[in-house]
Design brief:
The structure holds three protein chains of three kinds.
Chain A (H helix, E strand, L loop, with lengths): L5 H24 L10 E7 L6 H20 L8 E7 L4 H13 L5 E4 L3 H13 L3 E4 L16 E3 L4 H16 L2 E7 L2 H17 L2 E8 L7 H4 L2 H4 L3 E4 L3 H13 L2 H4 L2 E3 L4 H4 L10 E4 L6 H4 L4 H13 L1 H4 L5 H20 L4 H8 L3 E2 L7 E3 L6 E2 L2 E6 L12 E7 L1 H4 L3 H5 L9
Parallel strand pairs in A: 1-2, 1-3, 3-4, 4-5, 6-7, 6-8, 8-9, 9-10
Antiparallel strand pairs in A: 10-14, 11-12, 12-13, 14-15
Helix pairs in contact in A: 2-15, 3-4, 5-6, 15-16
Chain B lengths: L1 H32 L6 H17 L4 H24 L7 H23 L15 E3 L4 E3 H23 L1 H11 L1 H6 L4 H26 L6 H16 L4 H21 L7 H12 L13
Antiparallel strand pairs in B: 1-2
Helix pairs in contact in B: 1-5, 1-8, 1-9, 1-10, 2-3, 2-4, 2-8, 2-9, 3-8, 5-6, 5-8, 9-10, 9-11
Chain C lengths: L2 H23 L3 H23 L7 H19 L3 H23 L4 H21 L1 H4 L5 E2 L8 H5 L1 H24 L1 H18 L4 H27 L1 E2 L6 H14 L6 H19 L3 H15 L3 H9 L18 H7 L2
Antiparallel strand pairs in C: 1-2
Helix pairs in contact in C: 2-8, 2-10, 2-11, 2-12, 3-4, 3-5, 3-10, 4-10, 8-9, 9-10, 11-12, 11-14, 12-13
The chains are: A alpha/beta, B mainly alpha, C mainly alpha.
Chain lengths: 427, 290, 333
């Protein structure tokens, strides 16, 4: 079967050999650029490909901003800080392998990052095995500071329980107590549903219906057609990310958004920018906002400076204002480095003990602290009404903050947590 | 619960129509050359991004709707001539793997050019809103999709059955050796066939981003249901793709009503049943793939 | 000593020295462990694809069953290393026993598609039943004891463990494919009709091949779960199956050592490139394309063909009687 394809074949073959040879030889010749021998290395594990690439990139920006701020002040313990980034691809097995690589090969003293809950749990387990500090900046599942809590892991973003409780009360107060749920049919959705059910029991509300949408649902039409006959006071959308965008877009196309108030436990700017303005409506839990003093804190210079710095350095390339993800990355890295400075060491146990329970002020209102018992960051959560087109001066400013809930009122108490979280430091 | 079934059935039919458009393109490509195009979703996404880019520059939706698929076809023709042609005559596994590789490249290229975040894409005002249908309010956009399907199928049927070129295409599926002996340029035929399949993918892609968000992975989520549609409807039968699509749409919708947890996996269960009992599908030709 | 044997010994020596070389070549031990375990899964795909001629796009399900079987046995029964691995393999075997009766009735691309369908059903089960499997959040898998706890708990010793398991696996694999059973599989791939005419029940051979394939995949899954300390449903998705098939074809399907080469390139290559650039998927995709177009025999297969030593099972799949007659006629020159 030889013939006219001979030339192309040999070319492809030659290219293939060449590429293979290059690939095998390359790693030996890559210097890690700017490797200062004395720097403190922190491993950053974020998704840079796949569905969560956008939040992953945003978290990394926040992390970088914190590092830049500390390095300008002379670093920590007299040493500059460097990050080593790895793409964990939202795959928990890759995350675990990269975590191991960052600690064993790149000699990172601590790990930070992750967006998807599975990756957060995976890195938590791996880092615990290696006795290395890990800041789960962006994975929301309750288990990270619940049944799977570990001494070496601190979680910055709000837990699923907090999200549900922050919004449920506001929605009930605003619209009424008859809820219709669109719930993703996996761990995250179930956890949110349980938390919402808890609130409904407390306020004496009713569930007009619950639709579990399984993994991979891109078309919500079958679910959305069931909403109207159920006559709820408010449609509660628990799906996240791309599913959120699809669901809201389709809800709008069915005219549901004009008929029923809509809300949910958490929304992020990232998926909202993917929606046309008509679909940006409702009352949602938000974890931070760059524009509102209710979130940043009146007179909080650090917060306002952070936003200013971001606009100065990143707005041109990113084209969008900072989101809660930048906040998670920044706060996580900032507090990790502060912990190292306070402990005068990079030893994970000493740093963990220095961080837990310490109250601090940061780029959000009222300050917060990582609770000693479960290492959850106790900070406020807010509820915002969406502005479809932002404000006249800033079309990206979609959050009109209407309520603030402090952490104690929305998270499980220490006593309740003690039943599921058993944390043990190494002997 | 039966009063809910009405809207669900209607919804399922419309959903099925959409899957059918994707499936027909896939089926065309498979029938003639045995090429399994795992990059079909990528071409859909490509058309979606092209339409987005055109609209962002000020063209109106209708122009973009027609132009984007055509540009996608041009790119497809280049791909077919350089990458897919060498695989004709080899086991379908190779085309599957090669096009899978292409889909990985495409997803990353979209990421580089347009970013990882979902881009806002709204259908034009004339297609927004709902139509009161008595038993439910139904989005105009989805009815538009049905209209497009009907038009596309009619156009395809006309092309295949009433033009000389279509005649050659049908003849080639039956017996390529003979038609080559009769003087037809079969290589050109393969290219045009591929282009036709991608044209349909492009149209489906622009339609899809009105329903779903536009990001590098949009088309891939529709790929599996489309494959399942082709298998159930029958490889080798374009008519089967429509019936298959409707079946899948109905199955998904009705499952949402009765057993919501299974509404996404039901298509795989159906696929397994069809492949076990009657692998050629409902309307497929015997022995096409052994 | 033949050239082949020299290469094999050199490869094993290199692998044995990896932990020492790691800081210099910048390839972490954990990644190579993962690559070796990945090879075992690729071997499972190789048995079906290269030797029997059936594209196995559902092997990730057996891989996942192995992983979850292992994880659940550790969680609920607190077993140690070997028992946990066996649990995983048995789970995979049970899964194979359920689907194999359906799979044996199909060949070619229908086999592949049916395996995808079954794979997705298992994926769905792993995802949906959160109470058992942890669902989308996955399950942590603490490493159990093997003789001495230190054996499994350190990365380097786990690496040697993986290497040992790999060597045993490949020896068993070689024995299988060089046995009469294995050669019958190749015969089935070349011309099943003739095999039947010779009086052999080809379906039974395929059935057993599926079971063996599942055992290998389950072994790989169980060990991978313990390596990563974690298992999530994504490991059962058909993309994962596709990765196993790719590694096999890349290295050379139908050869014994091909999957190793393919897996090393795939896993290590992916790790290195993803560290350099977030756009690593372009290179991966380009590798797929180049491999299919330029190296249909795979890297090892092409090398062996050059020296005239390529096994029969390494022939690139040409269109055979199961292909569309139109294409066959047109391209038989």
């Amino acid at each position: 079967m030889s013939g006219p394809t001979f030339n192309r074949r040999t070319f492809v073959k030659g290219a293939g050999y060449g590429a293979a040879a290059l690939a095998l030889g390359v790693p030996a010749f890559i210097p890690r650029l700017g490797e200062a021998a004395d720097a403190i290395k922190i491993g950053v594990l974020e998704p840079y490909t796949g569905t969560y690439a956008y939040p992953g990139e945003n978290e990394t920006i926040g992390i970088q901003m914190a590092i830049d701020a500390w390095n300008k002040r002379g670093g920590v313990l007299g040493r500059q800080i460097e990050i080593v980034k790895e793409d964990e691809q939202s795959k928990p097995d890759v995350a675990a392998q990269k975590a191991s690589k960052l600690v064993n090969q790149d000699k990172c003293v601590a790990l930070i990052g992750t967006v998807s809950s599975a990756s957060s749990l995976s890195v938590q387990a791996k880092s615990h095995e290696m006795n290395v500090l890990f800041f789960a900046s962006g994975g929301h599942t309750d288990d990270v500071t619940g049944s799977k809590c570990t001494w070496n892991t601190f979680r910055t973003c709000h837990s699923t329980w907090m999200e549900a409780h922050a919004t449920a009360y506001t929605l009930a107060k605003q619209f009424g107590k008859r809820f219709y749920f669109i719930t993703p049919d996996y761990a995250y959705g179930h956890a949110l549903q349980t938390a919402f059910d808890d609130v409904i029991k407390q306020i004496g509300g009713t569930t007009a219906g619950t639709d579990l949408t399984p993994l991979g649902t891109t078309d919500f039409s079958s679910v959305l057609t069931k909403v109207t006959p159920a006559k709820p006071d408010v449609l509660v959308v628990l799906v996240q990310g791309d599913d959120y965008t699809n669901c809201m877009k389709q809800a709008d196309s069915f005219g549901l958004l004009k008929k029923f108030p809509v809300g949910g436990p958490q929304v992020e700017l990232e998926p909202l920018y993917g929606l046309a303005p008509e679909a940006r409506t409702g009352y949602w839990g938000i974890e931070w906002s760059y524009s509102s003093d209710v979130c940043l804190g009146k007179g909080n210079n650090a917060a306002h400076q952070f936003v200013k710095d971001y606009f100065a350095h990143y707005l041109n390339t990113q084209k969008k204002p900072p989101t809660a993800r930048q906040c998670f990355g920044y706060v996580s890295m900032d507090r990790m480095l502060a912990g190292m400075a306070a402990a005068k060491s990079t030893d994970s146990v000493k740093v963990a003990r220095a961080i837990e329970g310490e109250k601090f002020q940061s780029i959000f209102a009222d300050g917060g602290y990582y609770r000693k018992e479960d290492h959850q960051l106790m900070w406020p959560m807010w509820v915002a009404k969406l502005r479809p087109n932002g404000t006249p001066s800033d079309p990206n400013d979609l959050f009109d903050v209407v309520a603030k809930h402090d952490a104690a009122s929305i998270e499980q108490s220490v006593a309740e947590k003690a039943k599921i979280c058993k944390m043990a430091y190494p002997a | 619960m039966l009063e809910h079934a009405g809207p669900q059935i209607f919804n399922g039919l419309v959903l099925g129509a959409f899957y059918a458009i994707v499936a027909i393109g896939l089926s065309l490509i498979m029938n003639l050359t045995g090429t399994i195009n795992m990059a079909h979703g990528s071409f859909m996404t490509l058309a979606g991004y092209l339409a987005f880019a055109m609209i962002a520059r000020g063209t109106n939706f209708w122009f973009a709707f027609l132009a984007a698929p055509i540009i996608a076809v041009l790119i497809a023709v280049i791909v077919e001539r350089t990458l897919i042609r060498p695989l004709y005559g080899r086991d379908p596994v190779y085309s599957l793997l090669l096009t899978f590789g292409l889909s990985l490249i495409a997803e990353e290229v979209f990421h580089v050019i347009w970013g990882a975040n979902t881009l806002p894409f709204a259908p034009p005002a004339s297609l927004s809103g709902t139509l009161a249908l008595g038993f439910m309010n139904f989005p105009v956009y989805r009815l538009f999709i049905v209209a497009v399907l009907v038009l596309a199928f009619a156009a395809l049927a006309f092309f295949l059955y009433y033009t000389r070129f279509g005649l050659r295409l049908r003849a080639a599926v039956q017996d390529t050796e003979m038609i080559a002996a009769l003087g037809t340029n079969t290589q050109l035929l393969y290219t045009i066939n591929f282009g036709l399949g991608i044209l349909l993918a492009g149209i489906a892609g622009v339609l899809a981003v009105g329903l779903l968000g536009l990001n590098p992975t949009t088309g891939n989520t529709l790929l599996m249901p489309a494959f399942v549609t082709v298998i159930i409807g029958g490889m080798g039968s374009l008519y089967g793709s429509i019936i298959g699509g409707i079946l899948i749409g109905l199955a998904t919708s009705l499952m949402t009503l009765y057993v919501p947890a299974a509404s996404e996996v039901i298509i795989y269960v159906l696929m397994a049943i069809v492949l076990t009992i009657r692998p050629r599908g409902l309307f497929g030709e015997e022995g096409l793939f052994g | 000593m033949s050239r082949g044997r020299i290469f094999v010994l050199a490869a094993i020596a290199l692998l044995a020295l990896e932990p020492v070389m790691a800081p210099y070549i910048r390839v972490d031990v954990t990644i190579v462990s993962a690559a070796l375990l990945f090879t075992i899964a690729a071997m499972s795909a190789n048995l079906l694809l290269g030797y029997t001629g059936l594209p196995p796009f559902g092997n990730a399900a057996f891989f996942g069953l192995g992983a979850y079987g292992c994880a659940l046995s550790i969680k609920y029964l607190n077993v140690h290393f070997i028992t946990a691995t066996l649990f995983g393999m048995v789970a995979a075997l049970l899964g194979a026993l359920i689907v194999a009766p359906f799979l044996v009735r199909r060949r070619g691309i229908y086999f592949g598609l049916l395996s995808i369908a079954f794979g997705q059903v298992f994926y769905f089960i792993a995802y949906r039943f959160t109470d058992v499997t942890g669902g989308e959040d996955g399950m942590a898998v603490p490493r159990p004891y093997l003789v001495v706890s230190a054996f499994t708990f350190k990365e380097t010793t786990f690496y040697y463990l993986s290497l040992a398991v790999f060597i045993i696996s490949i020896v068993i694999f070689k024995l299988i494919v060089q046995s009469p059973f294995g050669r019958t599989l190749v015969a089935i791939r070349q011309n099943e009709l003739r095999v039947r005419y010779l009086g052999l029940d080809s379906n039974r051979f395929v059935f057993v091949a599926i079971l063996i394939s599942a055992l290998f995949a389950g072994l790989s899954g169980a060990l991978s779960a313990m390596l990563n300390g974690f298992i999530a449903p994504l490991s059962l998705d058909w993309h994962q199956s596709g990765d196993f098939v790719l590694a096999t074809i890349l290295g050379g399907s139908g050869t014994v050592w091909g999957p190793l080469i393919g897996s090393l390139i795939y896993e290590i290559g992916r790790d290195i490139i993803s560290t350099i650039t977030p756009y690593w998927q372009i290179f991966l995709g380009a590798l797929f394309v180049a491999c299919v177009l330029g190296f249909p025999r795979g890297i090892l297969g092409t090398i062996l063909a050059r020296v005239g030593a390529a096994p029969l099972s390494n022939e690139p799949e040409e269109a055979n009687w199961t292909q569309s007659p139109a294409i066959v006629a047109d391209h038989r020159g």
